[in-house]
Specification:
By secondary structure, the chain is of the alpha/beta class. The protein has a single domain, classed as TIM Barrel, CATH 3.20.20.70. Helix content is about 35%, strand content about 15%. Strand 5 (about 165-170), helix 8 (about 180-190) and strand 6 (about 195-200) form a beta-alpha-beta unit. The chain is globular and about 45 Å long. The structure holds flavin mononucleotide (FMN).
């Protein structure tokens, strides 16, 4: 969660039983960094670093987690209009996973064709393949489900074919505070990529429901902000 999930925050939630944590999202190229600046200007929480500072910053955040929890896997969620800075970030020594953000829906990010607008790029497959080929960490692609005009299963196939290791799927149902279970089942049942199911998890029952859909793993965002999860993540 941009502006929230730094190393200090993640070190506090790891004891709840998570085995992977995600830093960011961070903006890596000039266009997305400028967009982040504008997001902060209108008062929304956001990480903002200059172009020559951002990768060293992520590296120091990764080290803050690894120094305390060497066995926890660390992912960094990043945005860039071009693939090169993402490949560069994947070379951070102890970073386990680089996650391409095709999910953000803030106007400043979508206006430059980034975040969820990436799903409409005709060169999306190429963009992801270039990162997969150049990356020195595993590659995850985070997407939002049910984006207007986008067939989520079709995008899932593109991401799988491009060679990404994980599809991190925010199975948002735009009409309710709940995941789109039918879509989640459809994507898991018709792809072989490791799907990390996400959206609205606030109970052990919902985690089980995600596994029943066929996910490889699950992630929780808003539910961890309170630091008050009423179930043990390590049970799953
Ligand atoms: C304040 C806030 C900031 C977020 N920032 C990011 C981000 O930078 N990158 C990203 O991929 N998702 C971001 N998300 C989306 C969450 O990671 C997650 O996909 C979404 O909230 C649904 O999961 P949840 O129901 O467990 O919260 C953000 C969500 C919130 C509430």
């Amino acid at each position: 969660m941009a502006g929230i999930t730094d190393a200090e925050f993640l070190n506090k939630v790891i004891p709840y039983g998570f085995d992977v944590v995600t830093l960011g999202g961070y903006s890596l190229d000039e266009k997305t960094i400028e967009a982040s600046r504008k997001i902060i200007e209108r008062g929304r929480k956001e990480f903002h670093f200059e172009i020559d500072e951002v990768i060293p910053h992520i590296e120091s955040e990764v080290n803050l987690i690894k120094n305390k929890y060497p066995d926890i896997r660390v992912s960094a969620n990043v945005r860039s209009t071009v693939p090169e800075p993402i490949i560069e970030a994947s070379k951070i020594e102890k970073l386990d996973i680089i996650e391409i953000n095709c999910h953000c829906r803030q106007d400043e990010i979508t206006a430059i064709g980034c975040g969820q607008e990436m799903l409409k790029r005709p060169d999306l497959s190429d963009y992801i393949s270039q990162i997969v080929d150049g990356a020195e960490s595993e590659v995850s692609v985070k997407i939002r489900a049910n984006v207007e005009g986008i067939d989520t299963l079709d995008i899932a196939h593109k991401i799988e074919d491009a060679g990404a290791d994980y599809l991190h799927l925010d199975a948002m149902d735009p009409n309710v505070f709940d995941a789109d279970w039918k879509l989640l089942r459809n994507v898991c049942g018709n792809t072989d990529i490791k799907v990390i199911g996400n959206n609205s998890i606030d109970s052990a029952e919902k985690i089980q429901k995600m596994y029943d859909c066929g996910v490889y793993g699950f992630s929780i965002a808003r539910g961890v902000i309170s630091g008050n999860l009423n179930f043990n993540i390590a049970d799953f």
